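> forwarded from #structure-qc
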């Protein structure tokens, strides 16, 4: 939907009106046939139709384009009243800056910031309302540190509140201790498994070293036996040589 034409000061060019809602264009788009529409209006129209509402030419969402720059500039320069005019705001500004003004307008109706309060109040009166709001919160005057709502004044019991707080803290502490315990057990179990795996690997390496040493000793004994055999053969050859 567009901006209500009654809010504008002076003449508004027909080309700046939405072809669907007939109000001043809001977030405008333009069809190839040069008819302009509010984005919300044309998207809603194309859900059930496939043509321009003005001249019935076939259009599609993909064919829509932003408004021509000169038309956009003309649109932004239009002067209009704040939407809070009925509440007393007398501001008149350009369409380009109206949103920024209305976000900060002292006459805007805004909700009370206190949880549970459904009152809508003018921004300029918010501080006064918060001072008397029945849902406002404050710290207990007896010094227990509990934040209470005015509506709960008669029901507040410092001892009961502190006891409840203590129970909550005790429960939280027990939960944290249990979590820390489980985490430590998990870490110890992980380290234990790692040590067992490491021990198994070391044991396998020791067995392999023993096997290698056994093979080496066997090779040494074989070499020594061969050396004795060779020495005996040399001695026998020396005796034969002397006999000759």
């Amino acid at each position: 939907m567009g901006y209500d034409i009654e809010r504008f000061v002076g003449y508004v060019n027909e080309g700046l009106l939405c072809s669907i809602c007939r109000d001043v264009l809001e977030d405008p788009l333009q069809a190839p046939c040069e008819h302009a529409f509010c984005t919300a209006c044309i998207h809603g129209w194309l859900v059930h139709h496939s043509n321009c509402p003005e001249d019935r030419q076939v259009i599609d969402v993909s064919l829509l384009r932003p408004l021509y720059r000169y038309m956009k500039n003309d649109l932004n320069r239009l002067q209009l009243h704040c939407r809070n005019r009925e509440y007393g705001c007398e501001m008149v500004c350009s369409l380009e800056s109206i949103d920024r003004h209305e976000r900060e307008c002292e006459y805007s109706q805004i909700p009370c910031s206190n949880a549970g309060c459904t009152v809508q109040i003018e921004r300029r009166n918010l501080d006064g309302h918060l001072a008397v709001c029945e849902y406002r919160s404050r710290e207990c005057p007896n010094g227990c540190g509990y934040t209470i709502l005015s509506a709960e004044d008669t029901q507040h019991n410092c001892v009961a509140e502190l006891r409840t707080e203590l129970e909550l803290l005790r429960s939280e502490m027990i939960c944290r201790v249990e979590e820390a315990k489980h985490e430590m057990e998990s870490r110890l179990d992980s380290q234990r498994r790692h040590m067992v795996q490491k021990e198994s690997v070391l044991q396998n390496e020791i067995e392999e070293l023993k096997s290698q040493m056994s093979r080496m000793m066997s090779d040494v004994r074989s070499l020594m036996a061969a050396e004795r055999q060779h020495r005996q053969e040399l001695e026998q050859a020396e005796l034969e040589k002397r006999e000759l």
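QC bot note: The helical segments are 39-48, 69-77, 95-104, 126-132, 158-243. The two ends are 133 Å apart (CA to CA).
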